[in-house]
Each structure stands twice: as structure tokens, then as C-alpha cells.
Amino acid sequence: MTETSPNAENERESVRLRRPGKQDAQSLWRLVCANETLDTNSCYLYLIQATEFSDSCVVAELNGEIVGFATGFRPPKRPDSLFVWQVLVAPAARGKKLAKRMLSYLVRHGDGVQFVEATITPSNAASRALFASLASQLRASIGYTRCFETTDFGASGHEAEELVRVGPILERE
User: Fold this and answer.
1) Residue 134's closest CA among 93, 94, 82, 90?
2) Is residue 81 within 8 Å of 116, Cβ to Cβ?
3) Which of 43, 97, 98, 135 has CB atoms 3.0–4.6 Å from 166's, for a disulfide?
4) Which domain range does residue 98 map to?
5) Does 153 fall in a domain?
6) Is 31 helix (H, G, I), strand (E, B) or coil?
7) Is 82 inside a domain boundary?
8) 109 CB contacts (<8 Å, ≥6 apart)?
9) How far is CA 67 from CA 95, 139, 155, 157, in A?
10) Residue 3 included in any domain
11) What is the dihedral of CA 54, 56, 61, 65, to 10 degrees?
12) In what residue span(s) does the N-acetyltransferase domain sit (predicted)?
């Protein structure tokens, strides 16, 4: 299933949301490598996400080019949750509320999803705003709990991460 932007002036400017496939993994990896804020993982991880976890991932295409993605999985201990691993929108596609549209797509197409989760650093204001906006749209509560301490990351210097949990979901659009 695909979706297009309701405000697009013409077909060339429409954004198409769809599940990823094996052929998309390198594009996802290249987007992350070009981004300075996300942790860079191996191309292999994006191959696994685009194949084994494609039901909990989405890519956004603009004029036939992947300009964004959201990757996630359904935690085995919390099958009613969608854990969002990474969300990225390329600079050329920003300002279209694409990150929230991709998360909304995953909720709408995620059979039995009642909660959306992710880990976010305390300083990541953009991600906090994204999940707050998603919670508002879904008429769901939002909460934060400590998840990973700085010491859990060893000498990497990585900031602590909090678990954000949106739900239960009351509105799916």
C-alpha cells in the first residue's frame, strides 16, 4: 500500500510510503552514513531490517528516490508494541512532516500495535517533539523512563537513553 501527500501540487512532488525490500538496504545505509546525528550501523543491519523486519519498517520515496525511513521491530516480550529503531528524513524532504507520517503509517499497518516505543537521549528535542506530536495525533498518553545509562555504553561517550512509550493508541485515523 502506498500513500501520497495530500498537499502535493503534482505527481512529481508526491511522497510514496511503502514497506522496504532487500533492494532498499544500501539506500538506507547511505542515508544514515550521510547523516551526522544517527548511530551508523553496518549495511548488513539494514539488509536484515528490510527483509526480516520489513513489516515494522517503512521507506519514503520522492520522485523515485528514498528520502526517508523508519525502522523498527515488535519486541518478543511486548508483542503489542512497535519499537522504533531509527527515523531519518533527508534534508531535501524535510518540512513535510514526513517523520510523523512514517510513524503513523507503521501504526495503521501494524496489526495489534497498541504502543509505540523508542529510546531517546534527553538532549534530543526533535525526537521528543516527534513522539509528543504522534501521541497527540493518536490521542494516546506519553511517558519516559530511564533505560540505558551513560555507563552502559562504556567508553563511547554516548549519552544516556530514556524509553519513550506512546499508548495505548486510541485513534488510528
Assistant:
1) 82
2) yes
3) 135
4) 11-166
5) yes
6) helix
7) yes
8) 1
9) 12, 28, 33, 29
10) no
11) -40
12) 15-167
State how far the Cα of 43 lies from the Cα of 133, in Å rounded to an integer. 30
Please tell me the distance from the alpha carbon of residue 106 to that of residue 111, in angstroms, as a whole number.
Answer: 9
pLDDT (tens digit, 0 to 9) for every residue of the chain, 173 residues total? Answer: 455 444 444 434 689 999 999 999 999 999 999 998 888 899 999 999 999 999 999 999 999 999 999 999 999 999 999 999 999 999 989 999 999 999 999 999 999 999 999 999 999 999 999 999 999 999 999 999 999 999 999 999 899 999 999 999 987 76
Q: Which of 16, 92, 96, 108 is nearest to 61 (CA)?
A: 16
Residue pointed to by grid coordinates 502506498: 2
The 3-state DSSP class for residue 165 equals strand
Sheet arrangement for strand 161-166: 15-18, 58-62, 65-73, 81-89, 115-120, 161-166, 142-148
d(CA 70, CA 18) in angstroms, rounded, equals 11
Count: domains in the chain: 1
| Cα–Cα distance measured from residue 146 to residue 161, given in angstroms and rounded to the nearest whole number | 7
